[in-house]
Amino acid sequence: MCSSCCRIPVSGVVVAFGADNRIARSEDGGHRWSVVRAMKGEGTILGAVMRERRIVAVGENGLTLHSDDLGKRWQFVPAGENRPLNAVAVDARSGNLVAVGGGGWITVSSDGGERWQTRNLGVAEYVHGIVRDPASGELVAAGINRTLSRSVDGGRTWTSAVMTQLTEPGYLFQVAQEPVSQSLIVAGGKQSWLRTKDGGQHWDFETAEDGAVYQGFISHPETGTVILFGDGGLLARLEAGATKAVLLPRIVEGAWFRGAVDRRSGTLWIFGADGALARSADDGRSWERIDVPTDATFYGGIFDSARRLFLLAGSRGVILRSEDEGRTWASVDSGTVVLLGSMIEDPSSKAVLVAGASGIVLRSLDEGKIWLRSSTGSESLLRAFLVEPGSGALLLTGREGVVLRSSDHGESWDALTSNTEARLKALIADSETGNLVAYGDRIVFMERLGR
């Protein structure tokens, strides 16, 4: 399969770039071909252009190559970012090479591809979280390749920066406010975390060359202590004001994927792979592993002692329920075997909902004892719920650009126009304007006129 092709005028030479990471060359207009270089591990070439006598090619993982002998030999030049460059062209006015890539990345070379300078980084190729910075009021997006982006206009436009203090690749998986200290916390790969209290002017941080991934974090509602959790049972405690996180004993071998806080009792919960569930009643200093009747991976849960509502959802359609504030758990028939994840309690009706794969939304009116399927009209993986400010309607995002809205407490759903088929992970809403910002493969601004 050919991903790109470059024909050299007059000479009859044609150079083709394949999706199997190969470069092929023909000297007779494409009748006979020979492979001139096999590129292993460098990425597929996605675009090429001829500049004077030089061929310049760009591709995955920030790949740039050039050849001065009609494609016989090639020199690799790093472009500075580990994200795809999709196309390259010659600026007719300046003669500069301009390459464009994932997330709006634009990089320019004024010397024929010997050196590249980023002119616009754009947002990360994949955005894992967006939150409003309590200090600046700006929206902050965290994504892959150590990228943080900021928006001062409610999500319409963004400026980005690479957090170079972190170890590469340093994917950032969660960004959230810590309400007690009014700080912004970011966590991700290479055992990295960052914290700022002044809108990003100064950052406390830690990162490790061989560190595991922090999948996320939770914070205690009274002390502000942050609990970071992740792959391989990684667990750490960061007290308010501290600049070093204390690693805690690992009580599981698999990954912790999610956390939750019981706001009435202050109990902290984490859950993840292979039926892993644990809680802490002492501000995260010590953790108790809780036995459950399944080895499914948990992706969603509700822990609310004020309502005595304790539920877990995960792979293979598993739903667990506890009637003794999480001490013991029993399986509930969900009526499905697909992956279940995000859970929410509708504030007005008190109905409990869970979303998952194959467009499924389940709804319970008796605190999780009996579950009925709601009509969504979607077959996509549905990822995250949100309560719409003002109206109280429920919103739900998913893959293939799916954004759904329910005005009847989750019983039925209507599709909103997102103008994308990208994978969407979640969304946030502006409480004043009602505008929505969805994120995942890209950031999608959805202006809600006349809502």
UniProtKB/TrEMBL annotation:
Transmembrane segments: none annotated. Residues 17-134, 286-441 form the Photosynthesis system II assembly factor Ycf48/Hcf136-like domain. One of its GO terms (cellular component) is photosystem II. The keyword Cytoplasm does not apply. One of its GO terms (biological process) is photosynthesis. It holds the Pfam family PSII_BNR. InterPro entries: PSII_CF48-like_dom, WD40/YVTN_repeat-like_dom_sf. The keyword Transmembrane does not apply. Keywords: Photosynthesis, Photosystem II. This is Photosynthesis system II assembly factor Ycf48/Hcf136-like domain-containing protein. It comes from Candidatus Dactylopiibacterium carminicum.
